[in-house]
TrEMBL record:
Top-rank taxon, per record: Bacteria
Bilayer-crossing regions: 89-110
UniProt keyword annotations, A-Z: Membrane, Transferase, Transmembrane, Transmembrane helix
Signal peptide (from-to): none
Single GO BP term: lipopolysaccharide biosynthetic process
Pfam families recorded: Glycos_transf_1 (PF00534)
Name of this protein: Glycosyl transferase family 1 domain-containing protein
Residue ranges constituting the Glycosyl transferase family domain according to the UniProt record: 229-329
GO molecular function, one term: glycosyltransferase activity
InterPro entries, A to Z: Glyco_trans_1 (IPR001296)
Organism: Candidatus Roizmanbacteria bacterium CG11_big_fil_rev_8_21_14_0_20_36_8
Amino acid sequence: MKICYIFSNFHHAHITGQAGVMNKLILKASENNQVFVISNTHQAEQITRDGVSYYLYDMSSSILKFIVSTIHIGRILRKIRPDIIHVNGALMSVYISFINILVGCTQVILLSETIENIPLILKWMAILSFRSHPAIFVTSNYLKMELISAGIPERKIHLIRIGLGQKFIDVQQKTEATDILYFGDSNINRGFDFIVHLAEALQKKKFTILLRYTFAEADILLKRVSLLPNVSVKIYPYKEPLEQLLMVSKLIILPFRWMLIRPPISILEAMALRKCVITSLMKGNEEIIDQGKTGFMVDFKNKERVISLINKLLDNPSERKVIGTEASKKIQKMYSKNEYEKIFHTYHLLLNTQ
């Protein structure tokens, strides 16, 4: 089978959610299929890596480059004539749908991010695109219900659990050298302010803060927390692999207010590593967190209760171990390799019913 995967930000596949999810799917698909990839990056090039043909475009610098790249993408699709075009994301689905009018290939969609904050006109266009294609893969029940409420027929929606890297499973236990670890970005949506306030309130506890990106909105908070003697702040790229840094923490705290990907991949990674996770009440988290059994969901505005829970867990290593073990079992069961086979099986069904 010839499959063409199309997604944005190829150059971020090693550190960001959507691109990372697609990269894992591409690697799995390439084991038994002829795979092509179309994406944007900093420099236009065509490369072949591990049997996969990549067509990469620089579409950021001008409208002219965008138009030229769009024409070229149409030509590439007509040339390779894939059996399946698999597009990631709501807006990318709209974009490729227009190009695919002239190509006429079967197009399916992967949606790992909520569409709730998309501007109304673009959301309307995305929903029209969803309705016109035979299959939409979603990574959570939260996203499935979001599409159903938007009028997408349930029969078109396929729930698949993908996005967890194997490196977060095959890791040996390490000596826990830090009490509390936060990893992500320094923005308010991720709850960075909550972690700063906790570090200030718990100055006898050792904090590690791993930041992939820093944002101007939290510059003052970042400067403040960096001055605390109990806090170590590390900015990407880290000197050690992320999974190794996570393994040496007693607790992982992820106080999300709002995230595009539901549930966030960072929670999956921490749970897979047998870590005890405290996260927020954000919708979607409940699909993987069984309260008190595989982790904790709390209201971070109630700082006293959060601090009480942190102290309780830090004082009870056996409880943390039990919770971490149950968390890893649940994640490995939900995010098994069989989830990828569901996608490939759907491809075959679609092609056989044409």
